[in-house]
């Protein structure tokens, strides 16, 4: 058996026994590591939870990538593009693209009793992926999309329905104002609640044929095409590939590429700020746990100063003596990290299942604290924490090198 390790174990048993002077400081140091690791794991899990929830909601409204007419907004109702450009099949063949969906937008006004509200209506075809809206559907059902025009079904947000007093099954009269006023009657088939107030307060969905009719477009003219990607895809990389495909085409159907983070910059800026906050928390927690471990190790060194002098007198080098105390310190670190990880994982499991901690969706875009566990990040965090704390524990080695056997052997 390694001599240093054997002495370390013996030292641990003796100091942990009745009357061990360093036991209290050891428990405090280990508890500090546990709390710090728990806070860091939760900070990352909550940050990733917010990212996932908000990205899923933003892409649920618009797709991760949008193709539209150059120089105009993605919601244009004036400059249509071809719904079947020559390069579309090549884009569909990209491995990360799951859905390619044409859409058409039109702004309008709803009047209900004395309330007037401006809205944006999105038209979709019968191949539209409704998974996101099914997940946030509060009442009623998803609208049936048809090619016919007149008395189509429409989907409305819960905030808008509450403000205007609509219920599922009610007729909805919408006014499209241009050079002339066009009036269309819809039936409210369902109410959704996505909790992104800036978007769902005004967005409604119906058949694309209705919007094409109001805009005066034919069946091949749309506001743009949205691409939905495989979960976890790098949007920037896929967007660059899509741009290359469009640039290599003959130029008859030129389109501009917009990413979802460019469409909702305020949401993604908030997420980037959240990343910075998590980084600050991690630095603070590592500092606290590291220096608490240094304090605990120094207390142990002072307690065992006579033994250090004896080992030096017997010929053991400073490096070997330092390993003895480092082994014990690492035992405390690993014990604390295991406890901290277990506590964090239990909280993540309970919160993900029962959503015990609520939030105000008007401020946080979700009604509870979201959590998402990335196992790769968890492993990197734990490995990094052990390495950093171990490096910090090298600091007390300066004390060992200054210990004089002649003086310390007199200490009882």
What does it look like?
The two termini are 29 Å apart. This protein folds into two domains: 3-57 and 268-408, no CATH class; 70-254, no CATH class. A hairpin with a 3-residue loop joins β7 (171-177) and β8. The protein has helices at residues 3-16, 23-62, 88-92, 131-135, 158-164, 197-200, 208-215, 235-247, 260-263, 265-303, 305-313, 318-354, 361-364, 375-392, 397-401, 405-408; strands at residues 65-68, 81-82, 97-112, 115-124, 137-140, 153-157, 171-177, 181-192, 203-207, 221-222, 224-229, 256-259. The mean pLDDT is 86. The protein contains 16 helices and twelve strands. Strands 1, 3, 4, 5, 6, 7, 8, 9, 11 and 12 form a ten-stranded mixed sheet that branches. It has a two-stranded antiparallel ribbon with strand order 2-10. It is 52% helix and 19% strand. By secondary structure, the protein is of the alpha+beta class.
What descriptive keywords fit this protein?
412 residues, alpha+beta, 2 domains, ten-stranded mixed sheet, 19% strand, two-stranded antiparallel ribbon, 12 strands
- Total domain modules: 2
**Fraction of helical residues:** 40-55%
Q: How many H/I helices? A: 16
Radius of gyration: 31 Å
Note the beta-strand portion.
15-25%
Main sheet overview: 10 strands, mixed
Shape label: elongated
User: What structural class do the secondary elements suggest?
Assistant: alpha+beta
Distance, first to last CA: 29 Å
Summarize the helix and strand pattern as letters: HHEEHEEHEEHEEHEHEEHEHHHHHHHH
Query: Poorly predicted ranges (pLDDT <50, ≥5 residues)?
Result: none
| Oligomer class | single chain
Calculate the mean pLDDT score and round it. 86
State the total count of DSSP E strands. 12
